[in-house]
Design a protein that fits this description.
five-stranded mixed β-sheet, elongated, Heat Shock Protein 90, Helix Hairpins, two-stranded antiparallel sheet, 372 residues, 3 domains, alpha+beta
Length: 372
């Protein structure tokens, strides 16, 4: 691309140089033509005639002509050429500034919300290509932003709709208890239990609203420090025990007890939490989630493997995008707002690392690699 740019700009410079040389030659030709047509064999008589008309004698006029005109012929012709050159340069500049006008129109084209290509003069094809690349990039980003906003709005609409269901159940069951004076105790416990479950579901849905808002309003920044990665993973294993034990799941941690790195502990813990929560939701009951952590070639690599339904290949392509849920059919009860993995990717990228996902034969592996 750079070589192409140089080639294209060389054409422009060559064209400007040729124009400039042509301008100089034209100035010389014009002065020579004026000399031939107007001055030769009659210029001296013209000057003497003008001087004598002012009241000077023929002798005095002749001396002035000899001193100021004939002895300064070289200077006079140089000045003449310069004057003609400057006059023609004015027209040259009008031609040259058309390039700036074209570039300005091209820049205006960047702001146009259309797919029309920006067209510049042939000798500015490198600039034309650059402007069109920038325009296509800006257009693509604008489309992505609109799609993201539409996805967020759709998600908010879904959540608002989903909130009504558990809220209606909570109000309904509590109303039954409130309106009945002789309801059996076991039935009261049953209704209270259902209301509690629905309340927890409602709390989760409300939290997802905050998650969406937090993602949009806060720019993620890092605060790196030496962090005990092993202890962090061990803590997360303990924290998820109550959630996992309900379905007979568990976590096995395979890592060196001295594993540490220069990372943002809070942000990286959020990455691991999102991945483990995802694994907990989509694992088969009574299966193990395996965490393997180690250092290799200056990087800390942590992989999370769970057993569950294989994620389709088309889902894996978009799994780290905002507002994408792995299983839409389970979104209300188990799925989040579709931000967890998107946030995880952003945090890992800020660390200068990568996060990947693979799924086959009912095994799903999320791998995080960050510099140590």
């Amino acid at each position: 691309m750079k070589n192409n740019d140089k080639s294209e700009y060389a054409k422009l410079k060559s064209k400007i140089y040729m124009r400039f040389c042509s301008l100089t030659a034209a100035a010389l030709v014009v002065v020579f033509a004026l000399y031939k047509l107007l001055w030769k064999d009659r210029g001296g008589d013209f000057v003497l005639d003008v001087l004598t008309r002012t009241g000077l004698s023929r002798e005095t006029a002749s001396n002035i002509y000899q001193q100021w005109f004939r002895n300064a012929t070289d200077i006079i012709w140089i000045v003449s050429v310069a004057v003609i050159f400057l006059i023609m340069l004015r027209f040259f500049m009008s031609w040259f500034t058309k390039y700036f006008t074209s570039v300005n129109k091209g820049i205006d084209g960047l702001l146009a919300d259309d797919s029309n290509k920006i067209i510049l003069p042939p000798e500015m094809s490198a600039t034309e290509e650059t402007l069109n690349t920038v325009k296509s990039t800006l257009r693509r980003r604008a489309i992505e932003a609109r799609e993201s906003e539409r996805g967020k709005n759709d998600m908010i609409t879904y959540l608002a709709h989903d909130i009504r269901t558990p809220l209606t159940s909570v109000i309904g069951y509590l109303s039954l208890i409130d309106e009945s004076d002789d309801m059996p105790e076991d039935e009261i416990r049953k209704y209270v239990g259902i209301s509690l479950d629905k309340s927890r579901q409602l709390e989760k849905l409300v939290s997802e609203f905050f998650e969406i808002t937090k993602y949009n309003l806060n720019q993620i920044t890092l605060n790196r420090k030496n962090t005990d990665i092993y202890y962090m993973l061990l803590q997360l294993t303990d924290e998820f025990y109550p959630v996992l034990s309900k379905r007979g799941n568990s976590i096995e941690l395979h890592a060196d007890e001295n594993l540490s790195g220069f990372v943002d502990a809070e942000k990286l813990a959020r990455v691991f939490t999102n991945i483990i929560r995802n694994a907990a939701v989509y694992s088969y009951p009574d299966t193990v989630i395996e965490i393997d952590a180690y250092k290799r070639e200056g990087k800390i690599i942590i992989s999370f493997t769970n057993t569950g339904e294989t994620i389709p290949a088309e889902k894996l392509k978009t799994i780290f995008e905002k507002f994408v849920r792995i299983d839409e059919s389970r979104a209300t009860n188990t799925g989040g707002a579709g931000l967890g993995l998107a946030i995880a990717k952003e945090i890992v990228t800020l660390h200068g690392g990568v996060i990947t996902a693979a799924s086959e034969n009912e095994k799903t592996v999320f791998t995080v690699a960050v510099p140590d």
